[in-house]
Amino acid sequence: QVQLVESGGGLVQAGGSLRLSCAASGSIFSFTAMGWYRQAPGKQREWVAVIIKGGSTNYADFVKGRFTIARDNAKNTVYLQMNSQKPEDTAVYYCNAVSGGGLSWGQGTQVTVSS
């Protein structure tokens, strides 16, 4: 079982930036993919971004041009850089990982964007 721990959430004004981190208990080099999801109050969890083994990335339409997913294999950490944040970005953000052992989820980190 892979353990994932998110950090970096907090309160930011609209137009500001935050960087989320997802630290993994194992080597992220062995993961097929890692990604970020978010869930706002009263809404379903939605996919935000993914980075595939090999380095390719994809993003949900509502964050394209604003968010960037990246990884640091030496630190076993995946990041989500969030720029030009909007109040609609307010949510709990979850990290996930796909490996040979299955799908793993972190516990989430709260992001609140004020107007």
Main traits of this protein?
mainly beta, 115 residues, globular, 11 strands
Please describe what this structure looks like.
The relative contact order is 0.33. Strand 9 and strand 10 form a beta hairpin. The protein is an all-beta fold and about 120 residues long. The strands form 2 sheets. Strands 2, 4, 5, 6, 9, 10 and 11 form a 7-stranded mixed sheet that branches. The chain has a 4-stranded antiparallel sheet with strand order 1-3-8-7, with no helix packed on it. It starts with a strand and ends with a strand. Helix content is about 0%, strand content about 55%. The radius of gyration is 13 Å and the shape is globular. It contains no helices and 11 strands.
Mind telling me the C-alpha Rg?
13 Å
Number of strands: 11
Per DSSP, what share of the residues sits in E-state strands of 2 or more residues?
Answer: over 45%
The helix fraction, in percent, is: under 10%
- What number is the mean pLDDT? 95
- Structural category is mainly beta
User: What is the rounded distance between the termini?
Assistant: 39 Å
What global shape is seen?
globular
Low-confidence stretches: none
Supply the number of helical segments.
0
Biggest sheet statistics: 7 strands, mixed
User: What pattern of helices and strands is seen along the backbone?
Assistant: EEEEEEEEEEE
